[in-house]
From TrEMBL, chain A:
Name this polypeptide is given: ATP-binding cassette domain-containing protein
Chain coiled-coil ranges: none
Keywords, ordered alphabetically: ATP-binding, Nucleotide-binding, Transport
GO molecular function, one term: ATP hydrolysis activity
TrEMBL record, chain B:
Transmembrane segments: 36-54, 114-142, 154-182, 242-261
Protein keywords: Membrane, Transmembrane, Transmembrane helix
InterPro entries reported for this sequence: ABC-2_transporter-like
Protein name: ABC-2 family transporter protein
Organism: Cohnella xylanilytica
Superkingdom of origin: Bacteria
Keyword Transmembrane helix: yes
Length: 335, 275
């Protein structure tokens, strides 16, 4: 059974073009010039029920626009979509009963009231029976550990606490399809981890289909079984996360600051590493995880290099995307 | 969730949702105590000025009648129109803000009509403020011109106030929904507010206006939101109450159709901002 299917789904925005300065403002007022800006360029996608799919892409790639079209709040410029057997923008209200959506940058909670008041409203709006609402909210409060701040006004909650309430709230009406748009944005590492665990648990215990957008590859690795990379409004890659981890997310970046001046040739670099930059005493080193492990690289430095600071990061998403383009080019040449 | 045969259960569900929105709006309103206090003191100030002004116009004569109104009727008339005017929330500013920062997405994702949501919220807020403003307004009017012993006039006021708030909501909604097309609605909102103040009968009963202006006002919706309920309160009259209710119903139907059309067109081209 399919959770959603799109065919050539796309959106073009009409944007007013304005020259800088006062003269530009006046000209734009008298003779406005419009420019067509494609946000999503015809996406073909199929998601089965119970799948966990990630939309990965840099800012402005078209991830949120796609989610907005699939939830029915944005009318597409062309193409078709079917979500749980319904046309999202034509049957928005009917679809609303069966899907849940969290926008990481927007809140559904009433700012001056405690979360329990919003829960109560949601229970009514989704027409939950009273006893069912009571049972369901108790269950979610327990699972999401909301007890301590359920009666605190939302404005006094931390971002992490608020996000937990936001996600718990979206599960109240038992959606069979969940859209999460950047659910971990702005959260610290520990809270991010907890939110991911909660989403994963809910996917397992309730069989909810999850479509998530993120520009954090760790969200994708830990939550999803399939990844769809969106870039410049189009599908760049659609494959199992395992394969992406092996082929694309197989790099880490180490930033090393030494305590004393060191030449590049003096830094021991094993096979599979590559010093990409040196600024002052800081080296940026790329590690190919397929050929060597981060701990082996670090182990080689201990006792030989005086380390002042060290960080290990995922490469920026733009680099990963460049890598995917490169890999595609190689494939096409080989074919 | 759809289908003609399930109309009654759907209406009942809609009513329950509206009641839930009304309840949470009132709870949220109670958090804005400073705003309440400010509005009430401003109301006291305005009414104090009006009482001074009209006492001078009537030369302190309680029996004198100007344009069919005694000073007592005119002062209480102003209490009612002010209480109604200041009961409304800034709908256009709210919708404009929702469109600009993209929060409209959260509302549109609910299985509830967007306009219906705002109507429930507007009505709840207006009902609470209206009653509060009546109480505060009485503090000035009662000692200055005497008790509001209008008998059936109260029935007229309360029965027409519901329609009045609905007409005011629809007028504001027609402007608020322009935010789906244009960036700024505050200019239109300014014009609407001034029309309500003048030809809506907030500052002066329509009866005291020149004949030709009265004829123009009769064909406009503004009097339905202020003049009709306040006039019904101070000049109770069964047949004109029915006529007033019919005028309100006609305007609610016409403006309701306009707002529904605007929403349908607007939702199709709405650009929901923000990531």
């Amino acid at each position: 059974m399919l959770a959603l299917r799109t065919r050539g789904l796309g959106k073009t925005f009409k944007v007013k073009r304005k020259e800088p300065g006062l003269r530009g403002s006046v000209r734009s007022l008298l003779r406005p010039e419009w420019e067509e800006k494609p946000a999503v360029r015809g996406i073909d996608l199929t998601v089965g029920q119970g799948e966990t799919v990630a939309f990965l892409g840099p800012n402005g790639a078209g991830k949120s626009t796609t989610i907005k079209m699939l939830t029915g709040i944005l009318h597409p410029s062309f193409g078709e979509a079917e979500v749980l057997g319904l046309s999202p923008w034509k049957q928005r209200s009917e679809l609303a009963y069966r899907i849940g959506t969290v926008f990481g940058q927007k809140s559904q909670l009433w700012y001056h009231l405690p979360p329990v008041d919003t829960f109560e409203l949601i229970g009514r709006v989704y027409e939950l029976k009273r006893e069912d609402y009571a049972r369901r909210s108790r269950e979610l409060i327990e699972r999401f550990e909301l007890g301590p701040y359920l009666r605190t006004p939302v404005r006094k909650l931390s971002l992490g606490e608020r996000m937990r309430c936001e996600i718990a709230a979206v599960f109240l009406h038992r959606p069979s399809l969940l859209f999460l748009d950047e659910p971990t944005i702005g959260l610290d590492v520990v809270v991010k981890q907890r939110i991911r665990e909660l989403i994963r648990e809910s996917n397992r215990s309730e069989g909810t289909t999850v479509v998530l957008t993120s520009h954090d590859p760790t969200d994708v690795e830990e939550l999803c079984s399939r990844v769809v990379v969106i870039h410049h409004g189009g599908l760049l890659l659609d494959e199992p996360v395992e394969r992406m981890k092996r082929d694309v997310l197989n790099r880490k970046t180490i930033r090393l600051t030494t305590a004393s001046e060191l030449r590049e040739s003096e830094l021991p670099l094993p096979e599979g590493t590559n010093a990409v930059r040196k600024e002052g005493r800081t080296f940026t080193i790329e590690v190919d995880l397929g050929r060597t492990a981060v701990e082996d690289v670090l182990g080689g430095w201990i006792g030989r290099v005086r380390i002042e600071d060290i960080t290990v990061e995922d490469p920026p998403l733009e680099e990963t995307i460049k890598h995917i383009y490169g890999r595609r080019g190689e494939k096409e040449e080989g074919a | 969730m759809s289908g003609g045969g399930r109309l009654l259960p759907r209406l009942a569900a809609g009513r329950r949702k509206a009641a839930a929105v009304a309840r949470i709006t009132i709870r949220q309103q109670l958090a804005y105590r400073a705003d309440f206090a400010l509005r009430c003191s401003f109301l006291l100030l305005i009414l104090f000025v009006f009482v001074q002004l009209w006492t001078a116009a009537y030369e302190g004569d309680r029996e004198a009648v100007i344009g069919g109104f005694t000073i007592k009727q005119i002062v209480w008339y102003l209490v009612f129109t002010e209480a109604l005017t200041m009961a409304g929330s800034p709908l256009a500013a709210k919708v404009e803000e929702e469109v600009k920062n993209g929060d409209i997405a959260v509302r549109l994702l609910r299985p509830m009509s967007y306009v219906g949501y705002h109507y429930s919220s507007y009505l709840a807020e207006a009902a609470v403020r209206f009653v509060l403003h009546l109480a505060v307004g009485s503090l000035i009017a009662w000692p200055s011109v005497g008790a509001p012993d209008f008998g059936f006039g109260w029935l007229g006021l309360f029965s027409l106030s519901f329609g009045a708030i609905t007409v005011a909501f629809l007028l504001n909604a027609a402007i608020a929904l322009c935010a789906f097309w244009v960036e700024e609605t505050s200019g239109l909102q300014f014009v609407l507010q001034k029309l309500q103040f003048t030809i809506g009968g907030m500052l002066l009963p329509v009866d005291l206006m020149p004949e030709w202006l009265q004829r123009v006002c009769a064909w406009l919706p503004f009097q339905a939101s202020l003049y009709l309920p306040a006039k019904a309160a101070v000049h109770p009259d069964g047949s004109s109450l029915l006529a007033s209710a019919a005028i309100q119903a006609a305007w609610i139907a016409a403006l309701g159709a306009l707002v529904a059309y605007q929403y349908r067109r607007g939702a199709r081209k709405l650009h929901v901002n923000g990531g």
